[in-house]
Amino acid sequence: MKNWLLDREWWVKVPRYLLIGVVVACLILGTWGMVIYSRDPGFQANYDTAVIDMIYYILQLFLGQSGPVGGEAEMPPIPWQLNAARLLAPASAVIGAVMAILALFDDQVKLAVGRSKRGHVVLVGDTPTAAVIEDALRQENATVIRANSNSVEDLTNAGIRGAAAVYICNDDTGDPGANLRVAATVQAVKPTTRDRMVAVALNDPNLAPAMLARHLTNPDSAIDLFSLTNTAATSLAGYVMRLPNLHRIWLLGSGPLRDAMVFELAQEWAIRNGSAARLEIVVYGDDAELAITSAEARMPDSLRKQATFTAVESLTEAEVPDAVVICGQDDAEALSLALSNPEAWGGGPGSLIVQVTHGDQATALFGQQGIGVLDDIDGVLDVVTTSSLIERSDRGILVHEPVVDRIAHCARRTQARRQHENSDNSDACLLPWAQLGDTHQQQHKEQVSELLPLISFLNEAQWRVVPFGASVGLDLPDNVVQELAARYAQQNPFKANGQNNNVAYYQEQIQQLPETLGQLGLGLAEVNSTGAVFPMTAKAKFFNAKQ
Asked: Which of 35, 37, 445, 482 has most Cβ atoms within 10 angstroms of its Cβ?
């Protein structure tokens, strides 16, 4: 519940409205009472009753002068209306003085209110990421306060002590640790609320996995790392899957989001359609071949069999798609691709999905509810904004997918795919993460709580979480898995997750972990005491030599 005592707008608006009400009441009661008073012969014998004189008498009340009221001994009794006006008039002067004092100390009031707030979100940074986060938060009806800078004073003035969440979204180009240093500053200020979450944006597509890898080996429950690109890609892929009869998708554009979509479309398709279904993804744009190669490297064989990827230099070479997804480096590129490629206009309603950051340009061009400078290509065009993609009404004050939830999401994908592989029914499909009930999602999150200690153990055993690259893969050698599982079971002798055989259970967890981490752009690599990373083909030999 909102505390009105800590609402600065309340302190500004109430005196203003109160002053207006008092003045209006004073004028009405003063006029009413003066008319009654002036009808008495005693009044008329001592004072003029012309209209201009009556107005003058009423206005004198605001100056603290009573005029004819009680001015002569033989005057009649004063009407109650006029007496009420005599009290309200000086009261308006007092209220006006209070408003002047509040205006004089407005900055101090802002600081006091900001420092005392509870349950709001503090947003740090003036970047496109910050703007998207703020837009999504306001859709959740959250109270958002922007910090003026990264200084302790400005952060404290913005209310980080009582904040439910702090989003740090500075531009960290060329300085990947910039946002993490601000997070450390925030952490040094003791919170007055429980479970304050500090969310740090990772913007560099190359450095983000490296920073996330180090975070997983030493997780801090109060600090969360997120990539807006990855969050938007997962949601956009799920959004595309709502279209019926999908068999061929065109993916146009360039940049990190387009690259992430190559991977996410295949992931979402596999969960929803069973192992027998096939999807063709045609990629058109800069570095299409590289995007496909990078995505396929993180996919297990079963997933690569379900989705085929084709890079094209011209859309006229490709067969007609069921859906077209456009993700540009910016809104201008996305809209340009949508409007300049008529080959993409031949699908059904909503089949041309264009992702933009805010939608300002799209609104200017296409308007709302069909009213705009341009049409929506007979309903084919569907423009979606990043803020609408990351909106999470069930998350309250957070609008991104926290790391623990993300790992649970990815772990379920791994389990679901393995169920498909081992199932006799190749047409079987499973509910995507977003459609799972709260109970099932919570069960998967509890399983993730078992993965984090396992990751710490592997790190101590020189198997580090690293960015996915040439030195990692999705399959660990069987003898390595068996040895690691046996050693981990010795450290954790109790039954794991109700299993009778701890070693077998941990073998399954370790076998699935590389595939789960691969969805986050991470992998497992063996690192010796000198820091050397061993390729997958040599890992088993080196591991056995150490024993």
From this structure: 37
